[in-house]
């Protein structure tokens, strides 16, 4: 009985992953996600299924659609998917690209577990700052003070400045974006690893980060 229910859930998720709803306001997102506990290479269907199993209710409910795997290296999947922006807007109101990306990361992880995900809205603006990243999360008075000068696996944070604030609270919490200047080129794969360290395996994906410039 349990096996049959699991198979039904998997089939439902696959249909949500591969079928695009024509009546939804879809926004394209680029997502890096580390898949744990899986050895070897994965096909597109296998990788997308692993991603969807992080938050099956949001895939089954049509929030996420049309998963495509661009690359998969050493457990890190590079995905393109579409998000029903109407669902996010109905619950959280208007958000900018940073708020949208932050919500996508949270939802992909079911608003709960350890966060190994970095999301980026494909429609956002890009700039030529190759050493800069934006990081979005809870707005706190000492964020820059705490992170400036810190060393991570690939980077040292040289400078931190406040960038913007979401127009309204999300889950009763003010959310802000900070601009970080790093000592090395902010390659998006390395930025994803930096983000994992900043989140520190704390639950609920407190932060999302993305490179300011465009990387393929």
From TrEMBL:
Keywords: Signal. The keyword Signal applies. Residues 1-24 form the signal peptide. The keyword Signal applies. It comes from the Eukaryota. This is C-type lectin domain-containing protein. The lineage of its organism: Eukaryota, Metazoa, Spiralia, Lophotrochozoa, Platyhelminthes.
